[in-house]
Amino acid sequence: MEILIPILIVVALVLIVGIYLWATYNSLVTLGVRVDEAWSDITVQLKRRADLLPNLIESVKGYAAHERGVFEDVTRARAETLSAQSPVEASAAENHMQTALKSIFAVAEAYPQLQASQNFLALQSELVDTEDKIQASRRFYNGGVRELNTKIKIFPNNLFARSLGFTEREFFEVTEPAAIAEPPRVQF
Q1: 37/105 Cα distance (integer angstroms)
Q2: Which residue of 66, 67, 127, 146 has the fewest CB atoms within a 10 Å radius of its CB?
Q3: Average pLDDT over residues 168-175
Q4: 95-104, 126-135, 149-158: least confident range
Q5: Full domain range(s) for residue 56
Q6: CB 60 within 8 Å of CB 109
Q7: Of the candidates 37, 142, 34, 140, which has an alpha carbon nearest to the alpha carbon of residue 87?
Q8: Assigned domain for 105 exists
Q9: What is the separation of C-alpha 33 from the centre of its chain, rounded to a whole number of angstroms?
Q10: Which residues are within 8 A (CB) of 61 and not within 5 positions of it... i.e. 6 or more apart?
Q11: pLDDT tens across 53-106, in order?
Q12: Residues 127, 143 contacting (CB under 8 angstroms)
């Protein structure tokens, strides 16, 4: 009977540790999947915006064909956005895209006939809606990354999370704050 008590204590401790590891592992997997889903949402919205840009460029080109440099900048920023594979690359592409969008809207402001064009106004409205969705997706992604990174770093999870293959994720951060200090101006 005296030997049974220490055995039961050891079994109970092993069971508690096993349940803790199992629950922690499952929560880390869940958070990882949530972050992957959020990243997918960002890429969908970035693709949506990239798909709108050729139509917007064509609308503006009809009025301002001599603004070739602006169109090339937007096209280059679009290609960079589509090829971004990580949050760091997407952040850099986002900065270039914001600068390019400011340029194209600055060109559009110089042409009152363009601002009155229903096609241009519809595209501009779609772009504003897409920008809002990108911002929401970024917040959701960064929230998921925050939760996952915190779970990996806290004690005692930090003792075994990395050995189970869980690594911290990168936030979707702005690398050039000045590039997005002001959103693209939309004037009618």
Answers
A1: 32
A2: 66
A3: 82
A4: 95-104
A5: 4-180
A6: no
A7: 142
A8: yes
A9: 15
A10: 71
A11: 887 777 777 666 656 677 788 888 888 888 888 888 888 888 888 888 887 777
A12: no
Cα radius of gyration rounded to whole Å, the chain: 25
Collapse the DSSP code of 150 into the 3-class scheme (helix H, G, I; strand E, B; otherwise coil) and give the result. helix
Distance between CA atoms of 129 and 56, rounded to whole angstroms? 14
Element (H, E) at 26: helix 4-61
Distance CA 102, CA 124 (A): 12
- Look at the chain and report how many structural domains it folds into: 1
Tokens of residue 79, six digits: 């290609």
pLDDT for residue 188: 36
Looking at the domain assignment, is residue 185 inside a domain? no
- Pick the closest to residue 131 from 12, 35, 45, 57 (CA basis): 45
pLDDT given at position 151: 93
- Residue 52 covered by a domain: yes
Could you give the CA distance from residue 18 to residue 22 in angstroms, rounded to a whole number? 6
173 alpha carbon, distance to own chain's centre: 9
Given a contact cutoff of 8 angstroms between Cβ atoms, the answer to whether 179 and 91 are in contact is no
Confirm whether 188 is domain-assigned.
no
Print the SS3 string covering 108-145: HHCCHHHHCCHHHHHHHHHHHHHHHHHHHHHHHHHHHH
Q: What is the CATH number of the domain that holds 77?
A: 1.20.1440.20
Q: What is the mean pLDDT of the chain?
A: 82
